[in-house]
Amino acid sequence: MDKNSKIIIPGAAGLVGQNLIIQLKSRGYSNLVAIDKHTENLMVLRELHPDITAIEADLAEYGEWEKSFESANVVLMLQAQIGAPTIEPFIRNNITSTKNILEVMKKYDISYLVHISSSVINSKADDFYTNTKKEQEKLVIESKIPQCILRPTLMYGWFDRKHLGWLSRFMEKVPFFPIPGHGRYMRQPLYEKDFCNIIISAMEKQPQNETYNITGCDEVDYIDIIRTIKKVKGLRTPIITIPYSLFYFLVWGYALFSKNPPFTIQQLEALVTDDHFELIPWWDIFEVESTSFEKAINETFNSPVYSKYILEF
Question: 241 in a domain, yes or no?
């Protein structure tokens, strides 16, 4: 793929987008158009990358952002609502925005799409995120636009404002770190840098209408994830297990006082869901080297450049 190809990145100021732009630029791609509605996170992106086009826009509404798609070669569609106490933001940001993007892609005859779906498509969970991501993926498939769909598991890395990033900052502030139940909830976390390199490989190889489940190579229990973060960051915070019912009550109570809680009841229920995701040899398919969990955690929290940046919810 030509390094001057015009690449549109909806949802560029989030976790995946911030990491993806770093990796794209490291590969020599420079004609990048980043679109996001989150003002503060877009400011971070502009600070780090003043050389790319950054557009503040709500993709759930038609507007001037549509013109940026003209003459584009590919769209890397990242935008997603991950957490919220009500369904409306999920519908707006996972479904409505996707309908709009697909329509604009057809208008400008853009020939390829890499869509970032989620492993929850294969999950037993029944929540706003899971259900709207399923609908989003269906819209992409039915659009008939040549595409590659990637379904990552739980991701972590630089700029992580939720998930492991939030957990690490929480650990720094509290006298002890609570774990719901026994904590032996197996996760298959995926390092963001590895995943971004998979996205770039998919963009370059352009598999036709293929879907790939992208799972982290390491199977790690939730409690061991927390212990690794503690070790890498050199923290002394005690880690204790508390009954699941009490943990549930605490999360529920916190949500009463916060319009945008960092951890919701639905996310807690998803945490303890017994999911085991397929592991395909993506390192061979996309020719991307896998980073070990502990090395990736160390890079995530000890980068002299990127560890200081924390995105807003």
Answer: no
d(CA 157, CA 169): 14
Report residue 197 as tokens: 């390199």
Confirm if 293 and 157 have CB atoms less than 8 A apart. Answer: no
Range of the domain at 16: 7-159+188-217+277-292
- CA pair distance 18, 13, nearest whole angstrom: 6
pLDDT recorded at residue 265:
74
For residue 65, the domain's CATH number is 3.40.50.720
Beta-bridge mates of residue 191: 156
13 to each of 87, 173, 194, how far by Cα in Å?
A: 22, 26, 18
- Looking at the chain, how many residues does it have? 313
Residue 259, in any domain of the structure: no
- Look up the pTM and report it: 0.86
Domain count, the chain: 1
pLDDT digits (tens, 9 = 90+) for 119-151: 888 877 788 999 999 999 999 999 999 999 999
Q: Convert the pLDDT of each residue in 58-81 to its tens digit.
A: 999 999 999 999 999 999 999 999
